[in-house]
Design goal:
CATH architecture of the largest domain: 2-Layer Sandwich
Strand content: 15-25%
Number of domains: 2
Number of strands: 11
Oligomer: single chain
CATH superfamily of the largest domain: Metalloproteases ("zincins"), catalytic domain
Bound molecules: zinc ion
Length: 238
């Protein structure tokens, strides 16, 4: 069996995946737990040794499952709580009834008011955040497409456990995580530029990063922001 860098395999007897990673600086095969992604990562110094890393991970399956279930539980979306929208805190308010979540303001500032109780409340708030995410991401995607003279793409909104976005130049589809709507607008804009630039270069080469820089300037602070806040954004409403 030939394994590839980045390949994901299901874990035996539990939820979660085993991601295969080649790191040329690694001295030996190892396993680490990616808390943000909720997955185990089998690391090998080269692609040839990935099979060995998979065998090692399989032998440690019980330990991996234990570590994955011990990861921090999510931040609930419930009345009285807050959620961050475009980098600003917004209070969550129970509206009674069964109405959809909507943005509003009261004497304390911006609020999201929604019907539903428990999981139904949480789902309505998530749906509103997804709608806001789609609107903002489609708008920024269009701007970057125009700047690069690219034809339209199909945008979809997903809820992956770890990824912020992906681009399939072949199918002209871009997929984003709605969770980026919680980040400051400049970070969301960076994500859109990141994926649109993959239509030009389907890799992370210096030429690719030059395209990103042409679109939004230096992306390093936005990348750092996502690295530092990713875990908490991915935990919201889980
Ligand atoms: Zn990328």
């Amino acid at each position: 069996m030939q394994y590839r860098n980045g390949q994901r395999l299901p874990l035996d007897g539990g939820e979660g995946t085993l991601r295969l990673s080649v790191n040329s600086r690694a001295r030996r095969i190892s396993i680490r737990i990616d808390v943000r992604a909720g997955e185990a990562v089998a690391v090998a110094p080269n692609e040839r040794r990935l099979a060995e890393a998979v065998t090692f991970a399989r032998s440690r399956n019980a330990w991996i499952l234990e570590r994955l279930t011990a990861r921090p539980v999510g931040t609930p979306l419930q009345p009285g709580g807050t959620v961050t929208l475009s980098g600003h805190p917004v209070r969550l308010v129970a509206g009674g009834g069964a109405g959809a979540a909507r943005l509003s303001t009261d004497e304390t500032g911006p609020i999201i008011i929604s019907g539903g109780e428990g999981e139904a409340f949480s789902r309505r708030v998530r749906n509103l955040l997804k709608r806001e995410a789609r609107r903002a991401l489609v708008a920024r995607t269009d701007i970057h497409l125009q700047a690069l003279g690219q034809k339209p793409v199909q945008v979809s909104i997903a809820d992956g456990r770890s990824r912020w976005g992906s681009c399939s130049p072949h199918n002209r589809t871009i997929r984003y995580s709605w969770r980026v709507i919680m980040a400051p607008p400049a970070v969301l804009d960076y994500l859109a530029a990141h994926e649109v630039a993959h239509l030009v270069h389907a890799n992370h080469s210096p030429a690719y990063w030059a395209v990103v820089r042409d679109l939004i300037g230096d992306p390093s602070s936005h990348r750092r922001w996502l690295r530092d806040h990713g875990a908490s954004l991915h935990a919201v409403g889980r």
